[in-house]
Amino acid sequence: MNDFKVIGPLLAAAAEPVPLPPAEQRRALRAALGLSRAEVARALGMSPFTVAGWESGRRPPW
User: Fold this and answer.
1) Helical H runs in the chain?
2) Chain-wide mean pLDDT for the chain?
3) Rounded-to-integer distance, Cα 37 and Cα 57, Å
4) End-to-end Cα separation, the chain, in angstroms
5) Given pLDDT bands bounded at 50, 70 and 90, which one contains residue 31?
6) What is the DSSP letter of 27?
7) CA–CA separation, 29 vs 24, rounded Å?
8) Alpha-carbon dihedral angle through residues 13, 60, 22, 48, given to the nearest 10 degrees
9) Which of 29, 28, 32, 53 is nearest to 41 (CA)?
């Protein structure tokens, strides 16, 4: 599951914004998909440190 090229079109196709889950659920969702912070960060063009911050409660800038 390393083809992240579909993420952009999926997000663009969303009719309306979906609220972010709570921070603890963000980590659990990533882990349930078997993704590392580095993989998520690479897919989003962010650093693993930023992803870790989101998982600890900081909000993404979007």
Assistant:
1) 7-13, 23-32, 37-44, 48-55
2) 84
3) 15
4) 24
5) very high
6) H
7) 9
8) 110
9) 53
Q: Check: CB of residue 47 under 8 Å from CB of residue 41.
A: yes
| Dist CA 26 CA 39 (whole Å) | 14
Structure tokens at 47: 């650093």
Average pLDDT over residues 45-53: 92
CA distances from 5 to 14, 24, 45, 47 (A): 16, 26, 12, 18
Determine if the pTM surpasses 0.70.
Answer: no
Which amino acid would we find at residue 33? L
Q: What is the pLDDT of residue 59?
A: 76
